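W.,

You were right to be curious about this one. When I first looked at the sequence I had no strong expectations either way, so I just let the prediction run and decided to look at it fresh. Below is the sequence, 106 residues in total, followed by the output.
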Amino acid sequence: MASRIRKGDKVLVIAGASKGQQGEVLRVMPKEDRAVVQGVAMAKHHTKPKGAGQPGGIIQREASVHMSNLAHFDAETGKPIKVGFRVLDDGRKIRVAKKSGALIDG
């Protein structure tokens, strides 16, 4: 099945500890049904020093969020939207906003 959320999409977190935050999808893990979103679900990681160039310490990184907790964000309306699929005349399968019918992939 084609993914409704892809790398580079603007999404809104609709459930969980980061509810209400929005950001860009940095990475999608389809086998685990998870995605990493920029600035969302920040987790602290303890790292060891790796040579002279990189000191150790506590760094913050984005943790993955389950896909069911994400909704595609429509910049025009400022609201989350549902994503559907449409096959064009030339055979390409593209994503569309269900409510407005606007093309997402272009």
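Here's what jumped out at me. The chain has a mean pLDDT of 90. And, maybe more interesting for your project: The two ends are 20 Å apart (CA to CA).

Coffee later to discuss?

I.
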